[in-house]
Predict the 3D structure of the following.
Amino acid sequence: MKSIDKTNLKIKIASYLDKNYSLIEVKDFFREYNLFENKYGLYCNSSNTKEFVIEVLGLIDFEIVLKIADDLKIEYKDKKIQNTGDTVYIFVDESGDMDFTSKGSKHYIFTFLVKQRPFALHEHISNYRYSLLERNLKPSTDKRLDIEAFHACDDNKYIREKVFDIIASFDNKLVRSYSYVLEKPKVQPNKRQDKDKFYINNLNLAIKNLLNKIKINKNFIIITDRLPFKSKKHTPTLKKGIKEYIKTNKLSIRYDIFHHSSASSINLQVVDYISWAIFRKYERNDDEYYEKIEKYLITIDNMTKNIEQQHYIK
């Protein structure tokens, strides 16, 4: 309660009661809290409603003052911005496609980036993008590079190398990553028939796995790229694993899930790069870029590793 200005709160209550009630009504109001027919009433002789209220509030336990403020719906909580180090941010990206035939990718992967503010080295990535925008070979004829955001799959090799070099310079004590891998041919047909359910059920499980691994016990915000479907009917499923984790661990914390465009967030672009590197390792047995981000990995869970049956050949 240290953040509450007690004097200001009492004045707020007094002003509210003075404006809306007569002195007699205020005394009746206080009787509901057992505050008038006792010593409080004896010590308060003011005939002015506002002064009377302030006198009473000055004598009673502050917990009762808070109860009165709540009952009157008077706002008293400190509105200062929360310490930037208090909230954990979890950024999510996926790699692979939803084609469950021999023509599709062999793997589907969810990758998570776990960070807290301040977000170090963001300015380096932003400045590099602006440097690319400013490059111009012949001012009168050549077109500038129009780069809204970095995307590992689309960026050319030169840009990709530079972005990976910046990401590789992060402090691995401040950046953590987790990956959840599925070998698609091993996924049972009834669990992939509805592609929206396949996506949301596995994302839900992946989030729950991550929360258990990092043992989160403070407020957190999950930010994904735009979901690959428009319907909101699966939102409760997405929150199921989070609610179970919070209940099991008896936590009193807040969480939120937002779906943003990757262009709006450097972190979504970073996790896209990390996910792409992991995907290349599993899909093509190419660990060139994986080696640059491996130090950030908490672990990689290959959820289908111990399943032998394949439902189609890739």
In short: The chain has a mean pLDDT of 85. The beta strands are 88-95, 107-116, 176-183, 220-224, 255-259, 297-302.
